[in-house]
Design brief:
Layout lengths: L8 H12 L12 H10 L5 H14 L3 H6 L2 H8 L6 H17 L7 H4 L7 H12 L8 H11 L8 H13 L6 H18 L18 H5 L15 E12 L4 E5 L10 E2 L2 E2 L2 H10 L4 E7 L3 E4 L3 E12 L10 E4 L1 H4 L6 H9 L1 H4 L1
Helix pairs in contact: 1-11, 2-3, 2-8, 8-11, 9-11
């Protein structure tokens, strides 16, 4: 089935992390759960280099959980704009409010309680508890899952819940047992570092790994087959037509996206499924629009499992124009620069700014 649990794995990871792991990141220099939580949420499916700038900006504006809880959601989304996966930002705000309202501004100290907060799953809860409170709990983010399945030769399909539970059980058994105050944060960080820099999805650097001597996947000569997960989410493509409607004062019409779906709750230009629907909307404006439509170069925005083929159309309109039934308003660059806009919409407005004003 799979290899037995290796001995002294935790000790090897801890020793390797101290000498070869990442020890310079700003969120590693604190056990403040607010700062650790913020970094963990930002790092979900986002590279460290990208997070560093956003992390510093958030802390400057929201130095503690109470400041974040008091903030307007639009300001939170505006600061988040460009990081993607915007549900994280909405849950970040909700979580801060829950910590303040329910827990008196103090984060719970156990992974079990942390996992009840908005946007904090089991692995993120384990990371916060291990880093801040040295709780003996495992994590299983994508990097750690890859490291452990390879070391153990874990061949079971992780698309099945029972196999995922079995891997969690193995991860629990491998945790440090002594000196937890120092060992748990370093062990947790060490597994993350190994997955990020050594035990990579392709062409892993096995000879540089402290676990190579006990790694079942290396012994079998096929580490890249792990982890095993048969269920794949299929990519699909969609075409969206974007109405960039400008009035005589130089403002652009923006409205909120629906509460569910892509860019949920963010400000955006009106979106249409096809060119005909956009043209019908423009025609409905009547005298409020001069009907001079300029089709801008289309571009593709890549999401995790979807490719958005975006077709922007620039239209001049009178101040009384209001496209469609959805509420919105006119915003000039001094306003939308600080709003929660999806990254491709912000780039579109920046790119067309010289044409707009």
């Amino acid at each position: 089935m799979r290899a037995p649990l290796p001995e002294n794995l935790a000790e090897r990871v801890v020793a390797w992390q101290a000498s070869h792991g990442r020890n310079h990141l700003p969120w590693q220099k604190t056990r403040d759960p607010y700062r650790v939580w913020l970094s963990e949420i930002m790092l979900q499916q986002t590279q460290v280099a990208t997070v560093l700038e956003y992390y510093a900006r958030f802390l400057e504006r929201f130095p503690d959980v109470a400041a974040l809880a008091r903030a307007d959601q639009d300001e939170v989304m505006g600061l988040w704009s460009g990081l993607g996966y915007y549900t994280r930002a909405r849950n970040l705000h909700r979580c801060a409010q829950r910590v303040v309202d329910t827990h008196g501004g103090e984060f719970p100290r156990s992974a079990q309680e942390l996992a009840t907060l908005p946007g904090i799953g089991r692995s993120t809860a384990g990371a916060i508890a291990a880093f801040c409170f040295s709780e003996r709990v495992p994590i299983l983010d994508a990097n750690v899952r890859r490291v452990l399945t390879r070391v153990l030769g874990f061949e079971e399909d992780l698309a099945q819940a029972k196999n995922e539970r079995a891997l969690w059980g193995a991860a629990q058994s491998l945790l440090p047992t002594t000196d937890l105050a120092e060992a748990m944060p370093r062990y947790t960080q060490g597994l993350m570092d190994l997955g990020a820099s050594v035990c990579t999805p392709r062409s892993p650097k096995c000879q540089a790994c402290p676990l190579v001597a006990c790694c079942a996947a290396f012994a079998a000569g096929d580490p890249e087959r792990y982890p095993v997960k048969t269920r794949k989410l299929l990519r699909r493509a969609e075409s969206w037509y974007l109405l960039v409607l400008r009035n005589a004062a130089g403002a652009v019409w923006l409205q909120r996206r629906p509460a569910d779906g892509i860019w949920a709750g963010m400000h955006c230009v009106p979106v249409f499924a096809d060119r005909a629907a956009l043209q019908d909307c423009v025609a409905s404006l009547g005298d409020a629009c001069d009907l001079a439509m300029e089709e801008l170069p289309p571009f593709v925005h890549v999401l995790t499992h979807r490719d958005l083929h975006l077709h922007p159309v620039l239209v001049a309109a009178g101040a009384s124009a209001q496209p469609g039934q959805d509420p919105g308003d006119w915003y000039g660059p001094e306003a939308w620069q600080g709003m929660g806009l999806p990254a491709p919409i912000r780039k579109l407005l920046d790119a067309t700014r010289s044409a707009l004003w």
